[in-house]
Design goal:
Elements lengths: L1 H9 L1 H13 L6 H27 L23 H6 L25
Helix pairs in contact: 1-2
Length: 111
């Protein structure tokens, strides 16, 4: 971790690229990697909204999940989230859910 902090303090873009390459196998210097990162950032925003809805409105859908093991660098969200990720809307209307699960909105109970 200290190596990452040192690299980040010297060259932030290089450190971010190394993080995404090592942890997520995204090469953010190529177009495909940039697209993968954009999808990841959107899903991360979706997750933050899901949590807020859960606490203030109740679970919108129990079948939603974050499909990545790691979080993105928060600085990669940028300063214009509404236009960059949400197309000018202020909230995500429909959450992407696992298509293999039932459409039942109640919590999953295995027993």
């Amino acid at each position: 971790m200290s190596e990452f902090v040192t690299t980040y303090s010297e060259d932030g873009k290089k450190a971010k690229a190394a993080y995404y390459q090592k942890k997520l196998k995204f090469n953010v210097r190529e177009e495909k990697g940039k697209q993968d990162l954009h999808k990841m950032l959107f899903r991360y925003l979706e997750g933050m909204q899901w949590v807020m809805f859960y606490y203030y409105r109740g679970a919108q859908h129990w079948r939603w999940y974050y499909p990545y093991h790691y979080a993105p660098m928060i600085s990669d969200l940028g300063s214009d989230i509404v236009n960059t990720f949400l197309g000018g809307k202020t909230k995500i209307e429909k959450f992407a859910t696992d298509t293999h699960c039932s459409e039942d909105k109640s919590p999953y109970t295995p027993f």
